[in-house]
Amino acid sequence: MQHLIRTSDFSKEEILGLFDDAREYLKFEPNEILKGKIIVTLFFENSTRTRSSFEIAAKRLGAEVVSLDVGTSSTSKGETIFDTVANINAMKPDAIIIRHSECGLPETLTGFVDCPIINAGDGKHAHPTQALLDLFTIYDHFEGQTDGKKVAIVGDVRTSRVAGSNRRLLPRFGMEVCFVSPECFRYEGDDFATYTSLNDVIDELDVIMSLRTQLERHNQVYFESLNEYAKDFCITSEVMGDRNILLLHPGPVNRNVDISDEMLKDPRNKVLEQVTNGVAIRAAVLKKLILG
User: Residue 227 is part of which domain span?
Assistant: First the structure.
């Protein structure tokens, strides 16, 4: 049995196989390959895009989805998450999709289940399906020619699980990843180039991945307002100029903080394409993990 906890759970060949399936699912033709399967979603953090994307993906493949209300679940009555998941597993679902604020929790749950666990985001650690859909968007845009492409991940990289997953995944496909952030949001760790101004590296870039500034994940105040942050890190038409750079964002976008209104209308912006691709990629992941 295979789980998806981090992108390294899939080989490069498996990922390319997911992409082949995802391209078929982008046709949005009727498909009941998962008819009779039951998928449970268990989200301990708020989510609109990821949760609905998984649910739509599952239903497009004919599966039934049970979305548990965490606020009224037994965990709110003192039951441990491990007991909750063990009880759900006893009901014999075909997959469990979980999001939790605790880094590493989805992996620890794999020993309590007889079905695949899919990590829909754990703390600051990983968001594998987001990274896969980001890679899919980049890969198809460049017709598979990703070797040597340079990607700047811009913003609150310290707390971003999206940045964490992408910095591990994109280099496997020949891409160079760098970070652009204020000092207070700087990622500390592996050997990635880090800049405090996008202007220092923008002429070298093929892709900009903007991130949401997650002030709720910091225990101190670094900026008086988001507008103060935006002065230096919002992706605007003035910043982009006429450069042929792909613009991505995992969502939700803070307008005129992460990306300007004007750039959200720009054809180089692929944010909504990412959302569409996300349904197809998650459908491919569900098929692979449930059917094997």
Answer: 129-270
